[in-house]
Amino acid sequence: MNDMVCPYLTNGLPKVRERPLDPPAIFGQLRAEEPIAPMTFPDGARGWVVTGYEQARTILADSRFSSKAAQKHLAFASDLATDFDLEKDLPPAQFEHMDPPEHTRYRKLLTAEFTVRRVKTMVPQIERIAAGRVAAMRAKGRSADLVKDFSVPMSAHVICELLGIPEEARARFEELSTQALSLDKKPEETKAVLDGLVGLIGEVAMGKLEQPGDDLLTRLIHGGQLEPAEILGVLLLLLVAGHETSANMLSLGTYTLLREPEQLAKLRADEALVENAVEELLRYLTIVHIGVQRTPTEDVELAGVTLKAGETALIHLPSVNRDPERFPDPDTLDVTRRAAGHLTFSHGIHQCLGQQLARQELRVGFTTLLREFPELRLDADPADIPMRDNMTIYGVHRLPVAW
Amino acid sequence: MTGTMPTTRITADPQVCVGSGMCALTAPDLFDQSDKDGTVLVLQPLPADARIGDAEEAVRGCPSGALRLAEGSAE
Ligand code: HEM
Ligand code: SF4
């Protein structure tokens, strides 16, 4: 061990967390010494890892940085064969990996579906969905796996409501999208599930042609702006971006509250705290733990370093959200702090399109659980709860709870 | 016109806005989003003094840089 040498990341991101709810300690060291530090991706490409809040925000808001898939790299070294070529195998309309004006075209077609006001009108539906999950949990007795029995089906059901997947197709849709989450991402399995989803969405879309509804899919089909293949692509993106994230946030958030009795007590004592608590849990847990990537299209000077054109910067969102210059005492969960300004949903033109829906879903989810189960507790030794260390989205694989 | 009071004016560029809703979440009395394309609508271009703090927070929080505060004048 040599204290003088900065701990460069030479093979992508480390997976080992010393504590399950804190990013690996190496990132704190990097942020203190070099908030924009060189790193080598597992494919051998040289780039940068960004751990400072201000630096991250600056890069994410800078139009000289591109989001194109061709320049993005796997963040974790993986022993799975990865012949999935992000650029070649991407369905159309994956605007998360596009720059303006292509990105703008898709995003503007969708933003009206996700406004603060529109999402508020969905609250009664979301409440009904959460109540339905609680009833299903109660029907099982006095214990359940919160992941399988609450979070994953709740999140899938909300997406169905958003997209306009009818009742009769919902069970199949939920099953396929749940499989998509539980797979350890072997390319051929992923492909089979994706094919199944594409087939199902196609069927549902045909139905909407004949019988329009008041939903996103109907508006896309009848809006006449997108080709059928693009509509499929948009739906897949919303599903991929929205299901796994919200589901993991519901489970990991509950796990965190159950492990922090003082914070939980504050929230139980004052339901109105939930908005703030959701914001703080989003910051503290930063489930997109592989961060986001941006590639400079020209040489960019920033905070004393030169990011050469083509050298991709990985914005490590979990460390950015623990920057003590932005969030005092950052490693402490405090449901009463002002957590607004966190970068959990990223920043810049790609900032999460579904964030208002995610917030609303989390508020309803936590409120419902706490209200309906005043005695909710972990039903396992916390050390035995398997964490999703090597998955794209952080969380817990299982969460046994009892009440 | 009698003595225009210098005051803070909110301006928004809907071309730049990406409809994140952060402004409408931070200060719902000052900002809304269009039903047509989700882009920002400024409800109160000249916010009361007591609301300027939240207006500033909304401008800082805007992910796309669509919002600006300028010294305007009440007409
Ligand atoms: C807690 C839940 C969620 C988290 C933490 C999350 C996180 C993120 C992040 C970090 C990005 C930015 C990627 C980048 O900058 O390159 C993003 C983009 C996106 N998210 Fe979310 N998300 C969540 C829920 C949702 C939901 C519920 C939906 C929709 C149903 C959704 C749809 C999208 C879409 C479409 C994009 C791409 C936006 C663009 O490129 O313009 N997300 N999300
Ligand atoms: S915060 Fe900025 S990008 Fe988001 S809706 Fe308001 S003006 Fe548009």
Automatic annotation (TrEMBL), chain A:
Keywords on record: Heme, Iron, Metal-binding, Monooxygenase, Oxidoreductase
Gene3D superfamilies noted in UniProt: Cytochrome P450 (1.10.630.10)
Record-linked PROSITE patterns: CYTOCHROME_P450
Family, per entry: Belongs to the cytochrome P450 family.
Name of this protein: Cytochrome P450
Protein's organism: Actinacidiphila acididurans
Lineage, top ranks: Bacteria, Bacillati, Actinomycetota, Actinomycetes, Kitasatosporales
